[in-house]
Amino acid sequence: MTPFGKIKSKIEFLFETTYRNESFKENIKGFKSHVLDKKNICEIYYLYDELTNKNNINESIVDDYINDSFKVIKSHLESSKKDILELSKWINEKINEEINNTYVDIDNIVYSKNVVKDIVENKSLNIPVSSMLKIANKTLSQEYSDLNESEINEIKYYSSLSREQLINEIENTKSIVIDKLKVTLNESVDEELNKKIESTIEEIKNNNLTKHSLYKLKQLEKGL
Questions:
Q1: pLDDT over 70 percentage in the chain
Q2: Is the dihedral of CA 69, 73, 75, 76 positive or negative?
Q3: Residue 7: Cβ within 10 Å count
């Protein structure tokens, strides 16, 4: 299987070379279908970005965060093989040439047998920063007209958050959503509904600290 870092590098190359072309809108749609709409793939993609930009992570949590991130990535890769194959096929049809893997250091750790050991031995990751989202955000309003203004602003906002801002936003949103669910729980006499609410609360408490998770929490908050 093609390493995810190599796939991501090809995706970034695709957008770097086509964002002024007519094909950009079609490429965004493909990216949305193969990455943004796939929860696990989306989390892997964002975690690769966040590990690359690890200087934005608060020093007090950086070691634990890096450890947890690699474990989440490895788990998602294992459970999402079909989606990754489809993603790889899509990007290889777009870019059939060899592209330099700018995430090779992350890949070396992710695809090793002993993730924790390799993280300890490779604390000084030094990877070039390159993110398709930064490029896409510059022209998203003009190029991706299928999104409404609110959705465009949400994508821009979540993609711009630093790690510390993301954690604060998630914790605040968790608190708001859980409080609202508890109100519904206290008022409900439907046993089946109460079980679902309790299950949802537990799931929220254990939610991963990712931009995708924040987006889902915000959607849930709007619906309550």
A1: 73
A2: positive
A3: 28
Q: Sign of the C-alpha dihedral, residues 93, 96, 98, 99?
A: negative
For residue 106, give the nearest of 27, 51, 183 by alpha carbon: 51
CA gap 108, 198 in Å, rounded: 40
Q: How far apart are CA 185 and CA 187, in angstroms?
A: 5
For residue 58, give Cα distances in angstroms to 72, 115, 168, 182, 209: 19, 22, 12, 31, 14
Sketch the domain layout of the chain as residue ranges: 4-160, 162-224
pLDDT tens digits, one per residue of 66-103: 778 888 899 999 999 999 999 999 999 999 888 899 89
Q: From start to end of the chain, where are the E strands?
A: none
What DSSP string describes 150-203? Answer: HHHHHHHHHHH--HHHHHHHHHHHHHHHHHHHHHHHHH---HHHHHHHHHHHHH
Distance CA 214, CA 173 (A): 8
